[in-house]
Amino acid sequence: MSADNFLKEVKLQLDNHPLFDDPYITEFKKITVFELDQAQHFASLYYPHILKTRLYQASALGSCPDEQLQFVFSDILYDEYGCGDNTRSHMQLYRNFMSAVGCQIQDAEHYPILPELAQYMDTMEQLTRNGDWLSAVAAVGFASEWPIPQYYSYLLEGFKKIPGITEDALELFSGHITLDVEHSKMIEAATRPYLNSSENQQRFLYGIEQNMQARRKFHAALHHEIFVKGS
Length: 231
Description:
The protein is 71% helix and 0% strand. The protein has helices spanning 3-15, 23-30, 36-63, 67-80, 90-100, 115-129, 133-142, 148-159, 171-191, 198-228.
């Protein structure tokens, strides 16, 4: 399969991934009122994930032998860190959301890490630090970018049902809907030259599937904590 056809197939599979039919996502689609205590619980449980995502990208950058891929990851990281303005970093935009739903911002070590999130973190760290570089690029440059616009659209659908929430408070989520499309296109262009062989395509698919499997387990834990345990 050519690189172009392979990438089309990968994007189609991600667009229609079973993840989007999981109970966690379904709750965001159907919820009529997102109670404030639910929003606070979500915000606190998700915060450790938000703090770590760009560190995987930085690790992937360090593992890439290709200068163009290094450039792409550095460009993505520049966006993630607010393009030089730390009040606009994606971590700070998420803290704005936390504050808007009434969370007190504490040092990172005060937030609980669900076992399934710890497993996700370990998977991503192993892939990007000790694994194959092309699988790492797929895991953090594609699986962590291409599905996000659809995923965050569903989150926004639910978060807009939080009483009193403002558009500004949801900027982290709304901004990624367009930004991650651009990030995905950058990764796609930079990896295309490596994806004409079946061996490299399998390496790429491995990274994507490792990410998505671990992500679904994390989502299942969030679903239990936010929508089942508290009901």
